[in-house]
# Entry
Amino acid sequence: MDYRPQFEKDVHNFTDRYNAYKKAESEGRTTEQDALTLKKEAMALSKNENAMWYLEVRNPEMGQEIQRLAKDYNRHQTLNRDSGLSR
# Structure
């Protein structure tokens, strides 16, 4: 049985998906949708204060990467919203 808190499980799950994405990316096997999905997951995780605190202590580089991906996702959403309004 896994007794870790949910936020810790979420961090480890995201880290595994991130590493798998980076491996696939290096092999040229990713799509724009794959990148968007990863950024959306990063956005959700970035809003979890416990997860971000855990990353700050355990893996600050991944915490910074999650914040960068979340900002990219926000930028993408803003561009889509703005282009939708201009039509």
Observations:
- The mean pLDDT is 94.
- The two ends are 53 Å apart (CA to CA).
- Residues 31-87 form one domain.
- The chain has four helices and no strands.
